[in-house]
Amino acid sequence: MTRFRSAADESVGELLETAAERALDDAGVSPAALTSLHVGNAGAEAFNRRSGLQNALAASLGAEAAAADRIENTSASGASAFRRAVQAVESGVSELALVVGAEKMSAASTAAATDVISRIVHEAEYAQGVTLPSYGGLAADAYLRRYDADRAALAQVAVKNHANATENPYAQFRREITVEDVLDSPKVAEPLRLYDCCPTSDGAAAVLLAAEESHPGSDAGIRVAGCESAVGTHAVGERSDPLEIAAVRRAGEGALAAAGQTPDDVDVACIHDAFSILELLELEELGFYDAGEAWRATLDGETALDGPLPVNPGGGLKARGHPLGATGVSQVVELVWQLRGEASGRQVADAEVGLALNVAGFGNNGVCSVLEAR
Amino acid sequence: MTRFRSAADESVGELLETAAERALDDAGVSPAALTSLHVGNAGAEAFNRRSGLQNALAASLGAEAAAADRIENTSASGASAFRRAVQAVESGVSELALVVGAEKMSAASTAAATDVISRIVHEAEYAQGVTLPSYGGLAADAYLRRYDADRAALAQVAVKNHANATENPYAQFRREITVEDVLDSPKVAEPLRLYDCCPTSDGAAAVLLAAEESHPGSDAGIRVAGCESAVGTHAVGERSDPLEIAAVRRAGEGALAAAGQTPDDVDVACIHDAFSILELLELEELGFYDAGEAWRATLDGETALDGPLPVNPGGGLKARGHPLGATGVSQVVELVWQLRGEASGRQVADAEVGLALNVAGFGNNGVCSVLEAR
């Protein structure tokens, strides 16, 4: 992957190319051998006035015999592209599939970028003034009240993820923050503050997939044991419980079942902390904690790097950054490094099973993957 | 599908919904039974300031247990989404897959729409002032010179496709034109005139896919015998021959081989006539005619509705219209109607094997499908 940044010098096409070349180099594979190319990107038309990134990338790599397309699933575009590549290899349609996710958000003004991102929400709710941060604020408020939870637990999500990112050379923010920093940062949507929210970012990440039998000699390979996607109720106001995210639950159950694993088997997780409250809600939907329990576990350090369930060792969306189309792929990249034991200062001990969760909108679509060391 | 139009009253979301509901009604299937939803769309972010169309559609249909994503492949987005749905069903990942392609281009100004579409071309060539119509003009000029072809043959492509569209209630232009009309229409890119070029359009089309064994009783079902995609050389200036479109040749060869068919077996074809010259070049790349022969065949009426190889019986991109993300799906819809014998006034006699070709950019990516009556 590329280091996620707030304003990259490279174009979105160059970011894609850099990540792709790094993945190919890592695997020792020639681009001419690729049989499919899967680009995850949320909004290059609006952010960069570019279209057909996959065809430009095929040309610049020299992957001219591959099938190519782009997958868009808003903030889960990267994981959806990964899922399509898994499906292509699993079905035998593609022998050697390259997934590359990228976004260059800094090219647009903050107003323009916010406008694009806000249009992800349900039209009727958007018309009422609801944006993604509003959903985050409303959910955080409801969670704190219902479970009498400590506000510091939300801040601790960001504190933990920043601490992890100090050891990740690919992270956008490599500095520690404190609970006080979070609580003193500017208001975004009560009770959420700026440091409860992920940044806008530029960056790209890539993963190469091959059928297991075709590359039996690759010791560095990691097995994709499950990869499932599901939609939920689009309008948050129509959900029977505003703290439930059915898409996440369905995708998580599906991926774990496909892998023959349970939440207890997972050694490390990369989940979608676009807002601090989401990390708590998702940990509960995925079955790692009962409803209303993730906040206390977080305060108790259970999800820290040295806890029983390290969550977001690479810094998460909060501190690694969140270039929309790259995020889902970067989660998989982080898991690969963790499962290979190559994550140096942020290495989770004895990591054999990893889980990645990428979420679209405020949970209208979820994509969950389970990876295993071989 | 919806009738393709120059300026629909409906939003892109409403167009998607209408086409989806028509396909579900046609098959007698409930949206709750869908296991995957594949949206083909080229540029809703830029044209409509919308993102995540697939999740809004899942919600409005009530398909809340499906996996959903959007496929973008510029002007071949519809066929790429179809291909992904075929792959999902073929691999067993999805039991009942709905593909819906849509575009609402009229929502943007002509300048804005042209800007988006132009960015599909290679950046270096775009910087030199080359747009998609320029490529069309350059290729047409080279073709006419190399083969000493009659300019009227290009016009005849549009004349034929307009004549076919008079019998298609879903076509944007339902009136006949003459060779003189084409030659007298405004210049676009020499030698191409306005009537050599497809319009910008609004519309949507949908197809439902299921594994053959799971719906053995459906007499109306049509078999997908092959569906392949390939990229070619992105920059037209880097192609060894500017009249060769390798992506089309590769995709066509792949799809016919998968179907166990040859060009001679094809009874009806829907191919990508964004510019009149493309219909000729593609007929040659697909193996229907030798290089330099398609122009004469067209003048001789071989590709007319009553000829040995009816091409674009629904009117093609020229006269049915070209709402980018809908086009590839609408080609499949037209083939389904033809193979079912439901195309009334434009019915091709004894149609048993159909071929659809959807092309991205000026041939940097091609998607070819072969369908068979059962």
Any overview of this molecule?
2 copies of one chain form a homodimer. In chain A, helix 8 crosses helix 11 (276-285). In chain A, strand 9 and strand 10 form a beta hairpin. Chain A is globular, with a radius of gyration of 19 Å. The relative contact order of chain A is 0.19. In chain A, the strands form 3 sheets. Chain A has a 4-stranded mixed sheet, with helices on both faces. In chain A, strands 7-10-9-8 form a 4-stranded mixed sheet. A two-stranded antiparallel sheet of chain A has the order 4-5. Chain A has helices at 12-27, 44-48, 53-61, 77-90, 110-118, 123-127, 132-147, 151-165, 179-184, 246-259, 276-285, 294-299, 316-319, 324-340, and strands at residues 36-40, 67-72, 96-104, 187-189, 192-193, 202-210, 222-231, 268-270, 353-360, 365-373. With 374 residues, chain A is of the alpha/beta class. At the A-B interface, helix 3, strand 2, helix 4, helix 5 and strand 7 of A face helix 3, strand 2, helix 4, helix 5 and strand 7 of B.
Major β-sheet profile of chain A: 4 strands, mixed
Summarize the amount of helix of chain A as a percent range: 25-40%
- Count of distinct strands of chain A: 10
Approximate strand percentage of chain A: 15-25%
Taking pLDDT < 50 over at least 5 consecutive residues as the criterion, the unreliable ranges of chain A are none
Task: Determine the oligomeric state from the structure.
Answer: homodimer
Average pLDDT for all residues of chain A: 94
Q: Specify which chain pair forms the largest interface.
A: A-B, 58 and 58 residues
The separation of the N and C termini of chain A measures 22 Å
**Topology of chain A as a string of helices (H) and strands (E):** HEHHEHEHHHHHEEEEHEHHHHEE
Per DSSP, the total helix count of chain A is: 14
- Principal-axis shape of chain A equals globular
**Strands side by side in the biggest sheet of chain A:** 2-1-3-6
Rg of chain A, rounded, reads 19 Å
Structural class of chain A: alpha/beta
